[in-house]
Amino acid sequence: MSDRSNLCVIKVGGSLLKDSGSYIEAAKNVKRFVENNQLPIIVVSAAKGITDTLLEVAKGSVESFNKVFDVYTEIARELGSQRVFKRVLDELEILKRIAYSVSGGYDPSLQDLIVSFGERISKILMVEALEVVGVRALELNARELIVTNDVHGDATIDYIATANHLEKIVNSIVSTAAVPVIEGFIGATEDGRTTTLGRGGSDYTATSIAALLKLNDVYLVTEVDGILTADPSIISTARIVKVMSYAEAMEAAMHGAKRINPKAFEPLEKFYSSTVYIGSWRLFGTKILQVIPGECKGPKVIMHKTSHEMPYIAIIGEGVANVSFIKKVVDIIYESGVEVMGLQTYYYRPSIIIHVKRGSEISTLKLLHRKIFEEVE
């Protein structure tokens, strides 16, 4: 087995990829890892907003195709390589032929094929950006390496088949020392049909590669410095959660936490417990471990869900389901006169769910955040 000690995985989220400048900035930050004697495998998302636009293309929208064309050709042109510009044009021409052959009606396999062009073109641009800043790059093809089932729109990775593919190429990655770039979010069935992995699927690609190659570190790069105790647009005093367990992160994801995909932790639980770092290029503020020390237990995140039949507040963290913490929450609610419609907790899940009257979610959220996360200090 080749020495993989300097290999890591970096997922570059689409929220960071807006124009040619942001591809170059991402490439410069990758170069910092390389200069620190790390060899990152880059998992790249589609540029910002492109996936949603491609979903409209799959419904037959010519205007949406033109938008994708404009965004990607402008980035390619500004990166300066005629060869890359032509490659992007060729990909867009293939996309156009596929999209304009759509005869109406929902075809999930065709939709996956159309949506996959977001990542496919983004990978070409990321490779070029790395070359521009002086980093040798190597293109990998997710549709050749990431094997999935045939559930279009929300495919699951076939770990054994994917591990076999990855093992065949890892030695050449290490020996060439070129930075590999692979599309996130997409894969293919055993018989070669393109699939997508569901919303936030690039995280799942990144953690699967890390777990299957037994790599220690995965970096999920977003526009914020880490996971926060609450939505900062609602709670201005929300702060970064420094350490979380896989169980806490999965629970938060199940309740709709941004920047976490629930499937991302499955390969880490099954195959290898990589450390996941979430944050920005400036600061990876949140570290996610399989098991956290006892002193790190307690409430981590509070969030609300209004789309649910009965709105609720979720408090997430290992230890919140014990009687003393539940009593603390009940006392806060009782003393504040909040009308509660129901309270749910399970000993084996790191959360408390508080159902409240519609319209009182935000005020209850602010109250509980203040009492649990701020006043304790």
Automatic annotation (TrEMBL):
Q: Which family does it belong to?
A: Belongs to the aspartokinase family.
- Biological process annotations from GO: homoserine biosynthetic process; lysine biosynthetic process via diaminopimelate
Tell me where in this chain the Aspartate/glutamate/uridylate kinase domain is found.
Answer: 7-270
Q: What is this protein called?
A: Aspartate kinase
Record-linked Gene3D superfamilies: Acetylglutamate kinase-like
Domain of life according to the entry: Archaea
Q: Which InterPro entries match?
A: AceGlu_kinase-like_sf (IPR036393), Asp/Glu/Uridylate_kinase (IPR001048)
| Gene Ontology MF: a single term | aspartate kinase activity
Q: Which residues form the signal peptide?
A: none
Q: Please give the GO cellular component terms listed in this UniProt entry.
A: cytosol
Does the record bear Coiled coil in its keywords? no
Keywords from the named record: Kinase, Transferase
